[in-house]
Amino acid sequence: MLCASLTGNNSMRISLIGAGRVATHLAQAFKVKHQIIDIYSRSFDKTEQLAQQVNASACAQIEEMQSDVDLLIIAVSDQSIATVIQELTGHFPNCLIVHTSGSTHLNVLAQYHERVGVFYPLQTFSLERAVDWNATPLFVEAKQHPDLEILQVLAEQFSQRVYCYDSAQRLSLHLAAVFACNFTNYCYDIAKQVVDAEQVDFSLLYPLILETAQKATQNDPMQMQTGPAMRGDQNIMSMHTHMLEHADRQDLSQVYALMSDQILKRHH
Predict the structure, then answer these.
(1) Which of 1, 73, 137, 254 could share a disulfide with 122, CB 3.0–4.6 Å?
(2) pLDDT < 70 regions, the chain
């Protein structure tokens, strides 16, 4: 459900752990209305670069970070979150600490700190592209209700789509996002490999890609399915498989067979 609308204009003192894609976009967005105090990551070169962009201090060690901040954001890889929160134990006694992961449970933080939460943007991030924060769904969760309200206010400063989802709901979204984004992009990569092998312009597929995405976001994707597998056209599927095997691409042939089989089962 949508979070209750809250208003708030108080500037926060915010620090970040991480200097990758998510941390960079968040820091750049936060600096418009809030003060970025410290940046720390395991790569000091990246730390310095991001700190300069948002007028923050670059820290070489966690111990160098100021503890009197309002919000500490852990924007690191999922597998590193547990290690980071353990390293923070006792250093930020009164601070609200959040992670930005879609798949990491709130309890990973809660077992080491009292004031914890989640600030998860459902988006794909690249350093080369700007983020449309207004249209990006933001998901907040917190151990304590007052902290949830703080995160709601913060999120509503950036997006019109703010949701209060628990860890299980957020995990389902993250899994769905892997299929909708990561696996789909890999299919684009496969498509480019196929046409590149015959020196065919990949951009010829752009209108098809955009139309497919538009149909999937405006209709039930199941109802929009097309193609030889949906039709049960074994002749075309055999031809495609033979092409891939003849090109010594057994890996792509296996992907083609698996996906075609799943489409057949779904529609027949």
Answers:
(1) 137
(2) 1-9
